[in-house]
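To illustrate the input format used throughout this study, we show a single complete record. The first block contains the structure-token representation of the backbone; no residue identities are included at this stage. The design step must infer an amino acid for every position from geometry alone.
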């Protein structure tokens, strides 16, 4: 079957770039077509299924007008959903998450209003946190929304075996949000690492537009640290898997650390997707996203 995935890969965000690799690993035998969330394109004539995901692509943050106005991002996602509906192509959402403006989670029902008819029409919906499941069920008026850990937990980077063969010594910092070189608490940690002779590395997992200034500041403030700019998913996973400890402001920095069994911490004030992560289910349950997909395609 030819399956089109609409996500946010291709901009240098390591987490978003991991999803197409996971899809290819989990769905051998299918022809996969990958589209970017904000680059609408014509869908192939022989497309059998449209999938939105993975990642935090369920949001609507208009730049102007009322809070429930359609944002540029939503209109791009709407392009694909409307195209599938008009042509009778089955479609759904896989390993998705909601994202909200800082301190605006309480207004989700207003901000997400344009998504409501699509949440009701999707043939299947799997999300990556219990709270996202609650919101999707509430807004969509349906109980068949499934929660499983993020699909990126299934990424086979082919480095797990090597990770345990060396003695990890490096503390890796993944910048974003409060984990940044000018944060007072992070600077306190860095002084402690230096005093203990612990080597550190700053690993970029965000797009260059988000991370470049952090890396420049890290190089200026901590010249003894290694700067790892623009790694691919495999290199990022290898670096995290070989770390002694990880401080991460990025959601997928946390995902890679958990997947490789490396201790980690996040800042107290973190994005919605990190604060809503459920650490209780085993990460192997992430396979549930693809069980739902396989069951649907088998009909």
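Output of the design step:
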């Amino acid at each position: 079957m030819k399956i089109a995935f609409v996500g946010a890969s291709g901009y240098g965000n390591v987490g978003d770039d991991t999803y197409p690799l996971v899809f290819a690993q989990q769905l051998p035998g299918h022809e996969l077509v990958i589209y970017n969330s904000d680059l609408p394109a014509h869908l192939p004539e022989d497309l059998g299924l449209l999938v939105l995901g993975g990642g935090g692509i369920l949001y609507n943050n208009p730049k102007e007008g009322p809070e429930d106005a359609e944002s540029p991002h939503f209109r791009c996602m709407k392009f694909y959903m409307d195209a599938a509906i008009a042509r009778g192509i089955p479609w759904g959402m896989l390993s998705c998450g909601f994202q909200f403006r800082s301190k605006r989670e309480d207004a989700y029902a207003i901000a997400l209003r344009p998504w409501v008819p699509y949440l009701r029409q999707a043939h299947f919906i799997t999300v990556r946190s219990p709270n996202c499941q609650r919101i999707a069920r509430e807004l969509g008026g349906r109980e068949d929304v499934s929660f499983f850990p993020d699909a990126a937990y299934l990424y086979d980077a082919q480095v797990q075996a090597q990770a345990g063969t060396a003695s990890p010594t490096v503390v890796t910092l993944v910048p974003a949000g409060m984990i940044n070189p000018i944060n007072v608490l992070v600077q306190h940690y860095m002084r402690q690492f230096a005093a203990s002779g612990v080597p550190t590395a700053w690993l970029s997992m965000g797009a260059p537009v988000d991370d470049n200034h952090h890396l420049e500041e890290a190089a200026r403030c901590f010249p003894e640290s290694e700067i790892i700019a623009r790694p691919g998913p495999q290199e990022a996973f290898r670096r995290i898997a070989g770390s002694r400890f990880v401080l991460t402001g990025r959601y997928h920095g946390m995902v890679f650390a958990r997947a490789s069994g490396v201790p980690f911490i996040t800042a107290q004030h973190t994005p919605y997707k990190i604060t809503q992560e459920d650490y209780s289910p085993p990460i192997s349950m992430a396979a549930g996203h693809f069980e739902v997909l396989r069951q649907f395609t088998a009909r």
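Structural context for interpreting the output: Residues 160-166 have pLDDT under 50 and may be disordered. The chain has two domains: 2-149+280-297, 160-275.
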